[in-house]
Design brief:
Blueprint: H1 2-17, E1 21-30, H2 34-38, H3 45-56, E2 62-67, E3 71-76, H4 84-94, E4 98-102, E5 107-114, E6 117-124, E7 129-137, E8 140-153, E9 156-167, E10 185-191, E11 194-202, E12 218-221, H5 222-241
Length: about 240
């Protein structure tokens, strides 16, 4: 009887220890077709230089996921020693601002800057299709999940595949950026042009985990934010043509 009680205690402790921790990610793989990226854009040697520099220095980018049982926050770990314009470009490509997730609300808040103004953009959880594909990441058995997101730009509307590998043995529902809702921590994420790979997993951290819900910024839904940016884009193009 005592052995059973001790076993139950340690099993409970193992699950509990996963209710608070830190996961470190790096942008480990970039698939940017620079020829297509600059197609249709005005010739801008400085921008080309910054994009190419990003590709060459991608391993400098490190992101942190702080989590507890109900919440998570995802953000860039530190400011890079780079020119301000290049820093902003990296933010746009790899993850601009702070992502906050609350499992009780089933909402994602993305606090970010756009056009010199701070916004707080709310969206629903990403929808996944689960598969039985398996691979090992950092000694954790991971399963593959696939989703599709809609991307709109000057060339039209496109569907892009998002692939996540999640570990059910890490009993949390969080991952990089807005991607959440799977039955385990996301340890690898292929989001369009970027690959987020886990670098370190700390499930027994002694560090105090502070997760503060972002409150500053103009509140919009993701649909409202998309409509606003689209309107500004067309207005700017119209002014340039006239």
């Amino acid at each position: 009887m005592n052995k059973v009680i001790r076993l139950l205690f340690f099993c409970t402790l193992g699950v509990y220890s996963q209710n608070k921790g830190i996961i470190t990610y790096s942008v480990s793989k970039v698939k940017i077709d620079t020829q297509k990226y600059f197609e249709g854009k005005k010739d801008n040697p400085e921008l080309k230089k910054m994009v190419n520099s990003f590709i060459n220095t991608k391993d400098e980018l490190t992101y942190l996921l702080y989590f507890n049982a109900d919440e998570s926050i995802f953000f860039k770990s530190k400011k890079l020693n780079l020119p301000n314009r290049k820093e902003k470009l990296l933010d746009i490509l790899a993850g601009n601002g702070v992502y906050y997730v609350n499992l009780n609300d089933k909402k994602v808040l993305h606090q970010k800057e756009f056009g010199g103004e701070l916004f707080l953009v709310q969206s629903n959880f990403f929808k996944w299709t689960l598969t039985q594909d398996v691979k090992i990441i950092k000694n954790y058995k991971c399963y593959k999940a696939i989703g599709v997101k809609t991307v709109e730009n000057s060339k039209g509307i496109f569907k892009k595949k998002v692939v996540a590998w999640y570990a059910p043995s890490i009993n949390i529902n969080f991952g990089p950026k807005e991607y959440t809702g799977l039955a385990g921590a996301i340890l690898e994420l292929n989001d369009s042009d970027l690959m987020y790979s886990v670098r370190k997993i700390d499930l027994n951290t002694k560090k105090e985990i502070k997760i503060k819900k972002p409150k500053k910024g103009k509140k919009l839904t993701d649909v409202e934010f998309e409509l606003m940016t689209k309107k500004l884009f067309y207005e700017r193009n119209w002014k340039q043509r006239n």
